[in-house]
Amino acid sequence: MNRRLLLAVALLPSLAMAQPTITIESPWTRAAGAGGQGAGFVTIRNTGADDRLLSASTPAAGRAELHSMTRDGDIMRMRQLEAIALPAGGAISLAPGGLHIMLIGLTQPLEVGGRVPLTLVFERAGSITIDLAVQPAGARAPH
Ligand SMILES: [Cu+2]
User: Fold this and answer.
1) In the chain, where are the structural domains located?
2) For residues 104 and 37, what is the distance between their CA atoms, to the nearest angstrom?
3) Can you tell me the distance from the alpha carbon of 112 to that of 115, in angstroms, rounded to the nearest whole number?
4) Which residues surround ligand 1, an ion (CB under 5 A)?
5) What is the pLDDT of residues 50-66, one digit of tens each?
6) Are 69 and 78 in contact (CB under 8 A)?
7) Residue ranges of the chain whose pLDDT lies below 50
8) Residue 48 has what DSSP assignment?
9) What's the pLDDT score for residue 15?
10) 22 C-alpha to center of ligand 1: Å?
11) Which CATH architecture best describes the domain 20-135?
């Protein structure tokens, strides 16, 4: 390996760190009472290599799980996922009726206009903490 190539390889990790590869857009949730359940919705844009969302956590709930929702006849079924794949250069929307972050055992009421911190853990990008904006109960979109 010549000297110039060696230098280029040595610089790669710092270049990779300089630019975040994951951005979170429109993070929101719905109003809910303490002790109940909530759902977090975000759009995740990945400008880097293939990545995966592995887990989520928030001080506002005892537990946060990655869920999918599918229609089975007249019944909507939720299923826990081990991870959500984020293809390179793609964007994944977590939205009502589909993928969401289930907030189980709310430790506080989620009040309209409030903000709920949520930490998302990615396989490559590491941890990212954002605030979910609380929308009225039954809202279908951030605004
Ligand atoms: Cu769910």
Assistant:
1) 20-135
2) 5
3) 9
4) 67, 78, 102
5) 999 999 999 999 999 99
6) yes
7) none
8) S
9) 54
10) 23
11) Sandwich (2.60)
